């Protein structure tokens, strides 16, 4: 269960970041329409995994390494039922690049919340010295075969933990985004069957159902692997905050931001954020604590 925080503590724990086409913190109706027009079916099909775009730059203790032949995931057999309906592909424009990550519709009071990786919204592009904020955020739950069965949900306002903004701290590589309703006027969580609640401060050693969209434009469907906790990532001990952890499956580029479900798919207990170079057996992500993701999503 998420813990309550005083308003001033929440404000200190997270920062609003621009995700609209213009350099503003929230999207107007005109900007939302601009995002929807930008993400044509053809542009969605040609978008590359954002991790692949970012790979030449160092964004944390390790970077993703693409090696689809070693991947341990498999296509979700039937993604038309919860909890799969709450998982989707996050489309973003970063600089001049059209990319994608993965994300989850969260069961929150606003009914508008998407959880994804922090580096999907704010990371260092190749050849750049300072991070770039993503724009044109568009979440497509249950993106399957190039189709959007529940519609598209344009990002209205994005939030990042302060430690990610200050120092690209891998233990805080997470982002929360409030979205506009789809074209039918339905809020995200209502459209997908309720969204999935976030669990914090649970045991690290358990079974995880890892979901996301790894792979290039040729792979258009949701992927899954079931994996056990494989230990803490000791390289994240000095960074501050709860150390990140690993699971014994490899997802690869494009899966960043995808959920790690626990308790038979009823709660989000982690997300994919990085892998170690030449390690094609494990995927890593931040431990979900009231100190990081709890403070990030409180009140959203």
Can you put this structure into words, describing what you see?
With 300 residues, the chain is of the alpha+beta class. It has a single domain (7-297), classed as Thrombin, subunit H. 17% of the residues lie in helices and 28% in strands. Strands 3, 12, 13, 14, 15, 16 and 17 form a 7-stranded antiparallel beta sheet that branches. The chain starts with 6 loop residues before the first helix and ends with a helix. Residues 1-9 and 57-70 have low confidence and may be disordered.
Overall average pLDDT: 88
> What is the helix/strand order?
HEHHEHEEEEHEEEEHEHEEEEEEH
State the share of residues found in helices, binned by percent: 10-25%
The CATH architecture can be named as Beta Barrel
CATH class: Mainly Beta
Stretches where pLDDT falls below 50 for ≥5 residues? 1-9, 57-70
CATH superfamily: Trypsin-like serine proteases
Question: What's the end-to-end separation, in Å?
Answer: 15 Å
**What sort of overall outline do the alpha carbons produce when their principal axes are compared?**
globular
Number of distinct beta strands: 17
Beta content: 25-35%
Q: What's the gyration radius in Å?
A: 17 Å
Tally of distinct domains: 1
Number of helices: 8
Characterize the main sheet.
Answer: 7 strands, antiparallel
Class derived from helix and strand content: alpha+beta
């Amino acid at each position: 269960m998420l813990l309550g925080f005083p308003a001033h503590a929440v404000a200190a724990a997270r920062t609003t970041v621009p995700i609209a086409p213009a350099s503003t913190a929230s999207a107007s109706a005109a900007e939302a329409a601009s995002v929807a027009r930008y993400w044509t079916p053809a542009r969605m099909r040609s978008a590359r995994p954002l991790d692949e775009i970012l790979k030449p730059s160092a964004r944390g203790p390790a970077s993703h390494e693409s090696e689809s032949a070693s991947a341990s995931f498999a296509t979700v057999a039937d993604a038309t039922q919860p909890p799969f309906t709450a998982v989707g592909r996050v489309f973003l424009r970063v600089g001049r690049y059209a990319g994608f990550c993965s994300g989850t519709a969260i069961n929150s009071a606003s009914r508008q919340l998407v959880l994804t990786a922090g580096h999907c919204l704010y990371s260092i592009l190749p050849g750049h010295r300072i991070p770039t904020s993503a724009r044109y955020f568009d979440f497509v739950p249950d993106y399957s075969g190039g189709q959007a069965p529940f519609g598209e949900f344009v990002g209205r306002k994005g939030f990042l933990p302060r430690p990610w903004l200050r120092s690209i701290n891998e233990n805080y590589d997470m982002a929360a985004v409030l979205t506009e309703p789809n074209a039918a006027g339905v809020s995200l969580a209502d459209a997908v069957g309720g969204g999935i609640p976030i669990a914090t401060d649970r045991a690290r050693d358990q079974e995880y159902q890892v979901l996301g969209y790894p792979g290039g434009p040729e792979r258009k469907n949701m992927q899954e692997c079931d994996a056990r906790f494989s230990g803490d990532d000791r390289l994240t001990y000095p960074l501050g905050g709860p150390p990140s952890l690993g699971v014994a499956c490899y997802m690869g580029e494009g899966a960043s931001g995808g959920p790690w479900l626990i308790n038979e798919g009823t709660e989000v207990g982690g997300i994919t954020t990085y892998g170690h170079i030449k390690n094609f057996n494990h995927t890593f992500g931040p431990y979900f604590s009231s100190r990081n993701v709890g403070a990030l999503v409180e009140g959203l």
